[in-house]
Structures are given as C-alpha cells and as structure tokens.
Design brief:
A: mainly beta; 4-stranded antiparallel sheet; 0% helix; B: 115 residues; mainly beta; 7-stranded mixed sheet; 11 strands
C-alpha cells in the first residue's frame, strides 16, 4: 500500500522568500509518480508539479521545483519568491505508474497549510 | 478550454436521504475519478470510471455508486446518507495514457452537508 506523510501541519514564510514543504512517501512499487497540488480556501485542487520515479532531473515549473531524493523517499516542494497568493493548503500525492489494469488512484497526504506574510 | 466542472456547488441533505453529484471532465479527457475530502484531511479515493465502467474502487461502502456516460461525464450517488458523509466531494479527470500524461485535474468540488 502507498502512504504519503506530510509532517508540517502549518508553515509560515515572508513574502518574496523561499519555502520548502516536506513530503515523504512509502511504496513497494518501482514505477510511480509524485504530484503536488495547491488547494485554496475555495476548495479546488490545482495541479502544480509532477515527478516520475525514473526522472533523473528534478522537476521545475516556474516558481515551483521538486526536490526529489529517491533513496530517502522524499519529494519536497520548493516555492521560490513567495507571493501572498501562495497562501493555501498544499498536498503531496502519489500514483502507481504500473500496469494499466492497476488503476490510477492518487494517494494524498494530510496537507500543509502555508501562510505567506506581507 | 473548459476545465472540470461539478454541480451543485453546495448541497444540504438529511440523514437517510440520497444524493447525486455530477461532473463534466476537461475537454479531451476520458477518465473520471471521485474523491471524498473530510474537513482537515487529504482527499480519499472513492472510485474511477473509464469507458463507462468502474475501473478501480477505494475503501468505500456500496452506498457509494457511480456512473459514466458516453460523453465521459459522471455521476456519484450516495444512498442512505450518514452524518459522516458530510465532506467536499472532488471530481478529477484525466486521459488514460499512463505516466505523466495521466495527471488528474480537479473540479471545484461539491460541499455536502448531512444534517
């Protein structure tokens, strides 16, 4: 079974500074994908970034980067130059990328509430 | 390009009633997944539909059922509502291709309150 652990219930950061949100995972699968989603108070889950287990380079998408350490089973999200609009709940999730018949459910962590202070 | 849409946005029901939630996937997507998110928790996978069939199911009772239509839209039905069914119900769509291309995109959710 897959498990995602986010140990930071809440994080605070000053505007324009960088922040790292932690995520560790546990899986017996060899091929998997890791995702980060942002959930504002409105409720919609917004896809931010994806990292495949066989990707050699860390994923980057604009101000978001994923610090992937496979041996440590960690996939931390780094947000550079924080903005007030970054205040939201952030979820780490993973999915098995194996056989098609295995399905493609996402397993989520409990989330980290990020607050960006002016 | 319209994203994932869900209806209704909010719903109030009483225990024992039945509810139907609706989802239209993002253009070009053929797979719909449903998640339940209780207050203060991460989303939990309910089930996934592809080609009008349930492809995978999470640990939810049979009171939770679904359907996918030929146009790929989907419904989530919950019978005999319990207080514990109060949650945000999220629909996500994707294109069944495997790998990174199968990123799930979420709708705004339906907030269900059971009294």
């Amino acid at each position: 079974a897959q498990k995602i652990t986010q140990t930071q219930p809440g994080m605070f950061v000053q505007e324009k500074e960088a922040v790292t949100l932690d995520c560790t995972y546990d899986t017996s699968d060899q091929s998997y994908g890791l995702f980060w989603y942002k959930q504002p108070s409105s409720g919609e889950m917004i896809f931010l970034i994806y990292q495949g287990s066989y990707d050699e380079q860390n994923a980057t998408e604009g101000r978001y980067s994923l610090n992937f350490q496979k041996a440590r089973k960690s996939a931390n999200l780094v947000i550079s130059a924080s903005q007030l609009g970054d205040s939201a709940m952030y979820f780490c999730a993973m999915r098995d990328l194996g056989q098609e018949t295995s399905g493609s459910r996402l397993t989520f962590g409990e989330g980290t509430q990020l607050t960006v202070n002016p | 390009d319209a994203g994932v849409t869900q209806s209704p946005t909010h719903l109030i029901k009483t225990r024992g009633q039945q509810v139907t939630l609706r989802c239209s996937p993002k253009s070009g997507h053929d797979t719909v997944s449903w998640y339940q998110q209780a207050l203060g928790q991460g989303p939990q996978f309910i089930f996934q539909y592809y080609e009008e069939e349930e492809r995978q199911r999470g640990n939810f009772p049979d009171r939770f059922s679904g359907h996918q239509f030929p146009n790929y839209s989907s419904e989530l039905n919950v019978n005999a509502l319990l207080l514990g069914d109060s949650a945000l119900y999220l629909c996500a769509s994707s294109y069944l291709s495997g790998g990174a291309l199968e990123t799930q995109y979420f709708g705004p959710g339906t907030r269900l309150l059971v009294l």
